[in-house]
Amino acid sequence: MFFTVIVWWLTIELIGLAALPLTLRLFRNLPDRGYAFARPLGWLLTGYLFWLLVTFRFLTNTRSAAAFVLLLVAALSWGANYMNADESPLDWLRAHRRIVLTYESLFAVALLFGALYRAYNPQIMGTEKPMEFAFLNGVLRSPHFPPQDPWLSGFAISYYYFGYLLMGLLTRLTAVSSAITFNLGLALLFALTVTGAFSLVYNLIQSREGSGPGGSHSPLATLLYALLGPLFLVGIGNLEGLFELLHAKGWGSPAFWQWLDIKNLATAPVSPTWHPVDNWWWWRASRVIHDRPLGVDSEVIDEFPFFSFLLGDMHPHVLALPFVLMALALALNLLKCRTQNDERGTNQQEQEHHSSFTIHRSSFILTALILGALGFLNSWDFPTYTLIFIAAYAIGQYVAGGKGTRAWLIDVVSTGITLVALGLLLYLPFYVGFQSQAGGLRPVLLTKTKLHQYLIIFGIFDAAIIALLLTQVPGWWKSRRVAEPPRRRGWLDVLIVAVAVGPLVFIALLFRWWTVAFVAGLVAVVLLALWQRVSSDDPEVRKPPSFSPALVFVLLLILTGLLLTLSTEFVYIDDTFHSRMNTVFKFYFQAWTLLSIGAAYAVYRLLGRPWKRHTLGHYAFGLVMALLVIAGGLYPVMAGYSKAGGFRGPPTLDGWESQLGRIRPDDYAAYQWLQANVSGQPVLLEATGGSYSDADQISASTGLPTLLGWGGHELQWRGNYDEPGRREPDIATIYRTTDAWQAQKLMDKYGVQYVYVGNVERQKYGLTPAQTNKFRRFMDVVYQQGSVTIFERR
Fold first, then answer.
1. Closest CA to 151 of 734, 688, 679, 667
2. Residues 598-624, buried b or exposed e (16+ Cβ, 10 A)?
3. pLDDT at 535
4. Residues whose CB falls within 8 Å of the CB of residue 749, separated by 6 or more in sequence, listed in order
5. Cβ contact 792:782 at 8 Å
6. Which residues on neighbouring strands pair with residue 790, listed in sequence order?
7. Across 18-28, average pLDDT
8. At what angle do helices 581-607 and 219-226 cross, to 10 degrees?
9. What would the pLDDT profile of 195-238 be if each residue is shown by its tens digit?
């Protein structure tokens, strides 16, 4: 197991090294030059070129092709650096070896930790893991892209599959089994997320105004505060874990638990040990919000990153997380561009030359490639993080000045439209064949989130954000009074925001929508703080060191996160569930990402000063945050222990052998035979099952296409059940009929080459010997062991 982890680590290191010169150039305005994002950038670029070349059939989906594309990315990256006579990346590494060593150590520790935990929790069974495993194996089986859907033969995958392609690429390069890749991939995503969040907060700290290159604190203190980024993003859970512990110990009255209204918590048993013991108790933390429209329970998902990695589903929102952080780093790099330009301009001529706030053409294309990839990785992320980047560009252009309002607006809109269009165009082959279940916006009419449930989810971050906002009030008041003449527009700013947000707050209070009132109030204060930072009457406020790209960026993240959660109170994107379940799920996950980074910087900004300068208020804030973080840390400790079964089993990264090999050994042996003896993409017929069933495991694990897998999921992916609905009765007929000619005719219709008969098929269709033996009339038995027989067409 350890050797496999080393191979995985070396491969991703090589990918990062290939893209290092390009990374240092793209993120040149950040203090660390974006070093932490060399790995995800190299992975994305290699995956993009591989996808493009295989899609247009210049290459086939093989290991040698993957290696060729990696070498091509390395040649382009290092060649461009040589042609532009930039600073040597090796010189930069030597000059910054301390921070490089920090990143490498953090990444290695996170990867090893993630792999070790997955080794005690490796099973690729339950929830949507079989679906994700099917996509990964479907990518590996397909000679060209788009990959064939293993659960609907003859059709391409109708899902944002780029993350599975990236995992398939690493599987190709490392020659590791996909059953191991699945778990190593989750460990890699965790490690990239840890280093990405650390880098973002580190760069924010180093970018704080007036702090100088090293700030007023030691390098060690900077690194410790930067660790708040990964801690808040993936190291803690929401506060539901605290209430789980209280209930497990029998504390609290029945009336209190009824008021708290977390589904199934009030009826959970008291625990005899230090953690809850009822089955899947840790699931409740992702279902804190309890909607009851017209008194009927409605499922709402409020997943957060630690839960996602704990659960172990390789879902698109998890696959996209490291690249989301890279997109945020691009936006911060853009805001830093303006500050860097001002700092470089030493005379009037230089100032005029450097004050232009533009994006270089090559950087613009690469930015569109990165942002556009989010649509291919997880389509929900593309609009959100692209808007953040465009907003950063708009702020930077406004602060740089030199343009009238109309010219500024035209520039921002045209740049935004071009960026979005290019981001879509670069991935056009994907969108051409993509179908979606999305059915437009629908209003949320009959339910609103309870305020205490909202605070259980985001309370840790809200405390830090509120404290940060309170510190902005004195600064706003001071800037209004010291200006010559005294600023009167500040009161106009307050009036404008009050008119814009006030009616919403009033209506929310009138109808007792406490969450809406709370979040809308925070939005108003954030808007004022952000506006004060970028539109002061005093021109000195918009010049370094008074202008803080770090604070402006953090306020932008906080504003976006709050607006995302606020929007789910009024509208949702309609889908096959016809509820706000998925909208809350995706938007709250994005909000957690944004608010966690904002809260981490807020803690630094309030406490990252010499202790002699701390007041009683600072100590009180530090104590409150410490208590909240400890409360948020209860969930990872308890849930991590429970989900891993107390770390009692033998560790292994093979998620298929550890599950199927132990529960259904005959099926596992058949899977091994198919992997060793069947090449290409012949259609294999097995029993179809409903979503989350134990059917369709062979097609999922081999990537061999079957007629129909999880029908309910095909409905979600394609927006209709037309084709699955036609196939379902045909599959039953093929298995149940005793007429060989009828079975053969239906199999010809779908091009079936293999028929799989195991216990699942016997139980599903009640097969008799006569029904099974009919296959022998026109097929050969190519495999038979235990309860499994595999037939092949003659």
1. 688
2. bbbbbbbbbbbbeeeeeeeeeeebeee
3. 75
4. 730
5. yes
6. 756, 783
7. 95
8. 160
9. 999 999 999 999 874 444 334 567 888 999 999 999 999 999 99
Give the start-end residues of each E strand in 24-162: none
Nearest to 462 by CA among 418, 515, 404, 422: 515
Report the candidate in 710, 732, 734, 736 with the shortest Cα–Cα distance to residue 721.
710
- Say if residues 203 and 31 touch (Cβ distance below 8 Å): yes
List pLDDT tens digits, range 453-508. 999 999 999 999 999 999 887 665 555 554 544 555 556 667 777 777 888 888 99
H helices then E strands: how many in the chain? 35, 6
What does residue 208 show for φ and ψ, rounded to 5 degrees? Answer: -60, 140
Q: What are phi and psi of 148, to 5 degrees?
A: -75, 140
Using the Cα atoms of residue 732, residue 736, residue 742 and residue 745 in order, give the sign of their dihedral: positive
Q: Is 288 helix (H, G, I), strand (E, B) or coil?
A: coil
Sign of CA dihedral 103, 107, 110, 113: negative
Tokens of 44: 């994305």
Instruction: For residues 68 and 151, give the distance between their C-alpha atoms in angstroms, rounded to a whole number.
Output: 31
Task: Say what the pLDDT of residue 505 is.
Answer: 87
The H-assigned helical ranges of 686-778 are 697-702, 711-718, 722-736, 740-750, 759-765, 769-773
* Residue 476: predicted pLDDT: 59
The total number of residues shown for the chain amounts to 794
Are the beta carbons of 480 and 486 closer than 8 angstroms? yes
Q: 716 is written with which tokens?
A: 């979600």
Model confidence pLDDT, tens digit, residues 650-675: 999 999 998 888 889 999 999 999 99
Half-sphere exposure of 719 (CA within 13 A, CB side): 11
Residue 108 in tokens: 């290695």
Q: How far apart are CA 375 and CA 188, in angstroms?
A: 21
pLDDT value for 294 = 80
Contact 196, 326 (CB under 8 A): yes
pLDDT, mean of residues 244-270 = 95
Give the Cα separation of 542 and 355 in Å (integer): 13
> Tokens 């998620």 label which residue?
655
Pair 8, 43: CB distance under 8 Å: no
Nearest-10 Cα torsion for 93, 94, 100, 105? 130
Q: Is 294 exposed, middle or buried, given 0-12, 13-18 or 19+ CB atoms closer than 10 A?
A: exposed
Question: Alpha-carbon distance 737 to 53, whole Å?
Answer: 45
In sequence order, what are the beta bridge partners of 756? 790
CB neighbours of 779 closer than 8 A, spacing ≥ 6?
A: 755, 791, 792, 793, 794
Q: Where are the alpha helices (DSSP H) in 483-548?
A: 489-510, 514-534
Q: Is the pLDDT of residue 540 over 60?
A: no
Distance CA 715, CA 437 (A): 8
